[in-house]
Amino acid sequence: MKVAEKVSWLMGRVQENLFPHLNQCLKTPLTAQEERLVSILEIVQVERHVVKAVSRYRWPGRNAHDRQSLARAFVAKALYRHPTTSDLIRALNSADNLRRICGFMTHGDIPSESTFSRAFAEFAASSLGNLVHDARMLITLMGFST
């Protein structure tokens, strides 16, 4: 199966199955921008490109924040074109759907700006930004308006 066929199949599944399920689970229906974010997250699968939670064998101190949620927020920052991390944090605090899509269930789960900045520097050093850009372009070229 060619890449375009795989993406087309995946987008069909996302639109038919995932969006209705998310709309049932969330307090308010997904906006077009949130649907686009979910689509990109499904194509890129950022969870596969970042280290999962830190192991239990750590030095004393604060636990590291879940990199998967931070990676999803990294994608959201790029898609929503927030120029600063503080703009992203404000958006996460004000939009319940966005916060939950990124993996932060409550306002208290949203990390500090410095935590975001450290994680975003790691993601930029890896090729996660390129993957996000490629997924956005692919969705646009395929004609999906989500």
- Following the backbone from N to C, one meets helices and strands in this order, namely HHHHHHH
> How many whole angstroms does the radius of gyration measure?
16 Å
Identify low-pLDDT runs: none
Bin the strand percentage: under 5%
How much helical structure, as a percent, in the residues? 55-70%
Overall structural domain count = 1
Mean pLDDT: 78
How far apart are the first and last residues' alpha carbons, in Å? 23 Å
Largest sheet: none
Question: Helices and strands: which structural class?
Answer: mainly alpha
Based on the structure, what is the oligomeric state of the protein chains? single chain
**Count of β-strands:** 0
Total number of helical segments? 7
Q: Per the principal axes of the C-alpha atoms, what is the gross shape? A: globular
Task: Write a brief caption for the model.
The protein has 146 residues and is mainly alpha-helical.
Question: Could you characterize the architecture of this molecule?
Answer:
- The chain has 146 residues and is mainly α.
- The protein has one domain.
- Helix content is 64%, strand content 0%.
- It contains seven helices and no strands.
- The chain has helices at residues 3-25, 32-44, 67-80, 85-94, 96-102, 113-125, 128-141.
- α2 packs across α7 (128-141).
- The longest helix has 23 residues, at 3-25.
- The model has no long low-confidence stretch (mean pLDDT 78).
Which terms would index this structure?
globular, 146 residues, 7 helices, mainly alpha
